[in-house]
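Q: What would this complex look like in 3D?
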Amino acid sequence: MKEKTDFYAGSGEAGEGTVYTSMGGDWAEIAKEQAASEDETLVINMGPQHPSTHGVLRLMVECDGETVTKIRPGIGFLHTGIEKNMEYRSWVQGTTFVTRMDYLTPLFNEVAYCLAVERLLGIEDQIPERANDIRILMMELNRISSHLVCIGTGGMEIGALTVMTIGFREREVILDLLEAITGLRMNHAYIRPGGVANDLPETGIAQLHDVISWLEKHLGEYADFCNENPIFKGRMCNVAYQDLSACFALGVTGPMLRATGYSWDLRKEMPYCGYENYDFDVITWDAPDAYGRFRVRLAEMTESVKILKQCADRLEASTGQPVMVDDPKIGWPAQLAVGPDGQGNSHEHIKAIMGESMEALIHHFKLVTEGFRVPAGQAYVPIESPKGEMACHVVSDGGTKPFRVHMRDPSFNHLQSVPIQCEGGMLADIVVAVGSIDPVMGGVDR
Amino acid sequence: MSEQTPGAEIAANADQGRQAKPVAVRKGMWSQGTGDTSGYSGIVRTLPTPTAAQQPFGSYFDELHDRLVALIPDALVQVVVDRGELTFYVAREKLAEVIQTLRDDAFLRFEFCPSVSGVHYPEDTGAEFHVVYHLQSMTHRRRLRVETTCPDSDPHVPSVVATYPAADWHERETWDMFGVIFDGHPHLTRILMPDDWVGHPQRKDYPLGGIPIEYKGTVVPPVDARRVYR
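A: Here is my prediction, written as structure tokens for the whole assembly.
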């Protein structure tokens, strides 16, 4: 549709040149009309409602023919004020909020937040070993599921639909296990300041072994489909190129940094949650393009399976040990037990506080309604999420609620590098570049 | 969680000339403006905040501090070592120079700036806004927090985008959320809120919003208007 006025221009914004509104299926017509005019510069607005922008990312593209001359990302369409909201809720309720930020890596959000709160509380060394092992188990499961979405949707966007269908098949197996452990597929709020909400269910280890053998059987398929596929390589190699110095300047971490050949993984460099007790390798690649990032993610999933196996052994050995810090002022007094309706409280605990000890009832009530106080100060704790350095900056004024919480989401930084990866390239390669950055707008906009 | 009287340290802190971070004084158990039936309405609590550290700081902190002071003698207003994290308080006039030195000097070499964020302390008169820079040295495996302040009446802080391009969006977010103006930023515009938004949502005096909920004849007020523990 050719127009003289721009419907989408803001008030007071002057429209410039001819305005086309593409309604789908009319691209050839627009290209023909534009070719007839002398001006070859096209300004294209891509998103925020575009399937390949991974949510609501807006890209403003200036093209000369099919070559991108300028591109600017616009964000903020999914801003929900989570950080502001957390200032009105207790410290424990905070996990319910952060888990909704980057919704593909909910457990990493929770771990980053809880580690920061634990540092403020000064209980970092008192977290039980079993709680740390469960945290690592959950994070590595989550790392695989996040990489699967990245590889799957990234593949779908360049036409490799099978990669997407098998990617979501494997992801569903992992989410089923997460559901068995936490009660929810996503938005778990499972990791709490002081430990984790619940111990593994009785069948947890057996289910974990099933998932591990499923993944070992199927993860190889991605390499068979993609690694030497000429079409796949043709779309991915030398696309979205970004070298080490650009990564440093723009604050890029994670698989994009490791694809440049620089071996930087916070799990190795500054271990947390006991990662120093696990044996795994940091994956690097020698070509900082979309293909290199794909290979890094692929190999990282295999490394994560290696960690999962060690988790299974360690958790089997520590069955029955506590999963919450031994501090009645912080740790939730009751563990949930599954009732006949699939939900419920621990019956022994309810019996004790309702029938035997009024003090225990008061204590439970105070901890749930008032929460605990966190000494004043600030902490910044970074962890290695599937996308890069995910960190939480928490400030406390000594009260029962956070004074300020700021999440440093890796995707927020990574989207800044869209121009450097896309300018000078082809219009169609924007989709590959954004797919290889793997942004999740829930985390970017928060 | 111990509640000691911090009087002595605070006084010493104020003597050093730094705008000491506000020490919260709380009266009663509940949020302001609500009735108190708990019997604790007369209670007054002073909550201690981390105070200035004296050398030796321990860990790699002394080495870092000495090197920076050797290069820029009046760089630091105050050093805080708290919970294993090092914080340099820098006057905003010195910020650009300090940040560039931290990046460029071979013994400091903080080549990476992962995060910039703001904090609003309405009670810290004359330094209501704190801008917090988190730096990381991959060469030396070190982390550092640099903090600077500006008053509400003159919310200007120099931009560090020239040194760390990664700070670009972070400074835009801090402007968007707190209204801190970063002088020298190439295009300081709103990033998360709509372009025509009025106000800066993360300021403490900006309301959370929300509507009361009616349930079976009882009205539950929105979360920011509920009576809560502090």
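A: To summarize the key features: The CA atoms of residues 21 and 102 of chain A lie 32 Å apart. Chain A has a mean pLDDT of 86.
Q: Very helpful, thank you.
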